[in-house]
Amino acid sequence: MKIIETSVRRPVTIAMLVLVVVLLGFVSLSRLAVDLYPNMELPYVAVVTEYSGVGPEEIESTVSKPLEDVIGTVQGVDEIMSQSTAGQSLVLVAFNWGTDMDFATLEMREKIDMIKGFLPDEVSEPMVLKADPSMMPVVNIGLSGGKDLKDLKSLAEDVIKPRLERLAGVASVGVTGGNTREIHVLADPVKMEAYGIGMNQIIMALQGENLNVASGSVTEGRKELFVRTIGQYTSLDDVKNVRIAFPGGSTVQLKNIAEVKDTFAERKQISRMNGAPSVAISIQKQSDANTVQVSNLVKQELEKLTREIPGNVQVMTVFDQATFIRESIDTVSSHAMVGGLLAVLVIYLFLRNIRSTLIIGLAIPISIIGIFTLLYLGGLTLNMMTLGGLALGIGHLVDCSIVVLESVFRYRKDGYGFKEAAIQGASEVGMPVIASTLTVAVVFLPIVFVEGLAATLFRELALTVAASQSVALLVAITLVPMLCSKFLVVKDKNQVTEDTLARKGLLGRIGENQGKWFEKVEINYGKLLAWSLGHRKTVVLVVTLAMIGSLALIPVIGMEFIPKTDSGEISISIELDKGTVLDETNRVAEKVETILNDIPEVRTVFTSVGAAGDFIGMSSSSELARMQVMLAKKEERERSSDQVADDIRRRVEEIPGAEISVSVNQ
User: Fold this and answer.
1) Residue with the larger pLDDT of the pair 568 and 93
2) DSSP alpha helices (H): ranges in 414-535?
3) Is residue 14 within 8 Å of 479, Cβ to Cβ?
4) What are φ and ψ of residue 313, in 5° steps?
5) SS3 letters across 142-193
6) Cβ contacts of residue 387 below 8 Å, gap of 6+?
7) What pLDDT score was predicted for residue 175?
8) Can you tell me the mean pLDDT for 194-200?
9) Which one of 238, 244, 543, 600 is most buried, by most CB atoms within 10 A?
10) DSSP reduced 3-state for 101
């Protein structure tokens, strides 16, 4: 083949090309984003509508049903589900996989606009939200300690939140829990009746006085000054001294007809960290930002903030998506490296030639580094699927190069020179190597054209395998022949004497004995092959029975979409009857916390009472509570996350009146 002859005749050119490939690979690797799974667009949309003060039946008939009817006419809709609760309507729409979600949401908004005029006037603007995984919090932080919850929430909202929001890749920072300052005006109905004042007059007076108004401009010499009237309340006395007009043209101060109190708003949510009152901070990333990069920036900023905020305030990371991503990626990467080293070791055991081993050992990393360039150009990330495809392709990276090397090795043993052996040996197996590589590639490429969630997940794995085969083929027919033409020295085994082995020492004798053992294996394999060819019916029958037996084991082995992993995180969801007050839900949550404190594997428990929904924009619900449980590191505990979760399920069964679900985060 001409490309093989060119690679042997022009080694400097091949070396320069290899250097360029390596440099591009390292640059691409430094720019590749790291994530757990490939970026995917989920075909789900939520429509959230608020209607305060209305029961579930009215919500369903006046809001949910009209929305369902009009959304059902959108093209590509697969299923519609609705949930009507007191004061809120939630319509979930599932589209067919492969639907253009940008166009689908645009069409949904147009359809909803057509019926907005027929909805009750008090209904809020329907919010259309795509189910984007990036809307889920990347990092959850808990603040505890300090003087009181008011100061803690002020610290979170005024100091920590602005600092985190300015970080690259951060979309929003939410603060929940704590106390919110609120001024209560408790009007005395007897005094109001005596003065002839109604509640609307008090409301209008308070609203009218609490304003900053632009009052025009004043020209002074060569300057134009803009005048602004400051009227917003700055103290409690400002509210007390508001004058209310009553019939007869006179006025009375608000403090004379009402009690004005500086207090806190009614709590809709309660947050605790390890039993202590806390404030929760959730960080959401931008849709195109990388989880690990955002997490790293947040962690660095929190380290700076820890040195600036008061020492009695504890800042703890409750949940970090990037932690599990890093561990998973590191595990896959380490396994791939171990696989490559073992491949080199096996090659040395069989070939017993250090130069041959070095040639293959050099071809493996160059091939892998070259793949990173294709991943970067293809817009892929380093995730479980691409690294899995890379680990899967390492075996064939070695196969192609070994076939070429073995062919060149045989020509060298037959007495051919360096270049002639490289050209003849590589050209002889060039077409079979190309056919073998293309066969592997075409097996995986059809996955790219499959529809559904499986295609979304495994598309990048298929592309990575196909890319690895392309690079492996290029290395096998260019770099390997070039290296063989320069470094492949073959010694005749007949020239190996006892004196030579003695000079080699123990390793030389081990290698020679191992070579004899491999020769015996080769002889026995020849005998087995001859017997198989002489008993074809028996071989076919045994293989058929083995295949049937393998298929029969499928029910025993079991099947699952994604294998379970032990992340050390457990989620607990508590749901009471509709309309349950917040204090009762909090009482049940405290019982669950007491149970968790008795489990030795539990390290951190973050509780949010009154929290509803995950990432679809639902408001708080007093009958719901969420708990995030962090376990000790895997090596520090005897039980797995599933076993601990089973233990928690058995213990919480004793709590009456609550539906409690326990799930292990994968």
Assistant:
1) 93
2) 418-444, 453-474, 480-487, 498-504, 506-534
3) yes
4) -100, 125
5) EEEECCCHHHHHHHHHHHHHHHHHCCCCEEEEEEEECCCEEEEEEECHHHHH
6) 329, 332, 333, 336
7) 84
8) 85
9) 244
10) helix
